Amino acid sequence: MLPNKLQVKPIESTFSLKEHIYETLHNGITSMNIYADDAQLKLDERQLSEQLGISRTPIREALARLEQEGLVTVIPRRGVFIVRKSRKEILEMITVWAALESMAARLITLNASDEGIASLRKLFTSFENGQVQAHIDEYSDRNIEFHQSILELSGCALLKETADRLFIHMKGIRARTISEQDRAKRSIIDHLHIIEALEARDTELAERLAREHTLNLAAHIEAHVDYLD
Amino acid sequence: MLPNKLQVKPIESTFSLKEHIYETLHNGITSMNIYADDAQLKLDERQLSEQLGISRTPIREALARLEQEGLVTVIPRRGVFIVRKSRKEILEMITVWAALESMAARLITLNASDEGIASLRKLFTSFENGQVQAHIDEYSDRNIEFHQSILELSGCALLKETADRLFIHMKGIRARTISEQDRAKRSIIDHLHIIEALEARDTELAERLAREHTLNLAAHIEAHVDYLD
DNA sequence: GTCTGGTTCTTGGTATACAATAGCCCAGGA
DNA sequence: TCCTGGGCTATTGTATACCAAGAACCAGAC
């Protein structure tokens, strides 16, 4: 049966050049390995404007935004450069992240619904029998989902937003560290413990476990990651 | 005795138009009462460019930066508007802040020097005899200093940086709430307790007190501040 | 070979013109 | 009087031209 009212497309994609360029550059930067020795870290406004067929203005706006997020730095009369995060900066990000996530865990025990907490457990049902090694890629995705969900369930949008801002810089790093088998196994156990604490509404325990789990990542990076300066 | 080597000024002030405009607008916005009924919330690019005697470009860059910080919002073909934070957003900011500051307190007990912790106590020596009411303005300054110092002493620059980003939006709010006598007195007691916990290197206690102190502010605002929507 | 001085050329900063569109106002008709 | 349609205005988005600063390079002198 056809509708008797005119169906209109709900929303016109609010396409904006600077937005588009921002996303393009953002994806490009976060998906490249900026720590490779031969990585091309310099960006050229004019070259980009030619490649993309647009003027410099929207590119400059996109670059300015990327600069404020800390992905690039623009040095007057030198050029625009993709920034390599130092080991110290990465560790600080994880520290802040731990602060955010532990607060999120706390809030969940106080405010979240039982259904919300239950949804966390579902993320890991397929790994119950220690099949982590077999599906390491899928696990990595679930791992990220788990942490995103924790922040989401806290009910504090800013908490998630702030963490997301940090997360931008972590994609590359995290994908590497998580793929080490041993850590994946331990990580999944940690997650289940956190879920149990949340289910039990044990505020202090959930907070502590969430914090320690994240800080463990920091310790691991400090000890084992050597491609940072 | 005169130096036998040429003394040079260490750094040339890297004056930039967009930087200057950014600061001007930033100061202007944070120091005005944007919650007054008759507050002028609209900004005009061209008007600003005429007033300041420069072109629109650097103004647009400054506005873009302010937008990313959440101080203004620019609606295409409508204009640039100063954003009023909702009560919910303010409360979320304080929640995130609490997360950051409690982590900072934790780190201080683990890493900071005794001298650093001692410096905190000095901030409040002049208020020891309950002279808070008499010097409420000075107290307000010290209060801010205290929280800044906590984040500073944590040794995690990003922690402070992230908090500063939130603090931008709090200036107006905080100045009002702190001036209520009763709260000032309670606040100073809280601070001293936090300092004691830090001095004792009691990690868990310091973390808890720092968190609760900040969350108390949230509770107070939720209960008593009525000029937010 | 090395240092010095200047010249060139790259590159971001700024100004300005033009385009696109959302909102407003007014006229005209029912 | 109210509604509708069109065009006018206000305001940001985008393109482009020009400028200034300084990094890099090169030549010449010692």
From TrEMBL, chains A, B:
SMART domains: FCD, HTH_GNTR
Superkingdom of origin: Bacteria
Keywords: DNA-binding, Transcription, Transcription regulation
Keyword set includes Phosphoprotein: no
Entry keyword annotation includes Transcription regulation: yes
Domain HTH gntR-type, residue spans: 15-85
Molecular function GO terms recorded: DNA-binding transcription factor activity; sequence-specific DNA binding
Protein name: GntR family transcriptional regulator
Species of the source: Pelagibius litoralis
Lineage: Bacteria, Pseudomonadati, Pseudomonadota, Alphaproteobacteria, Rhodospirillales
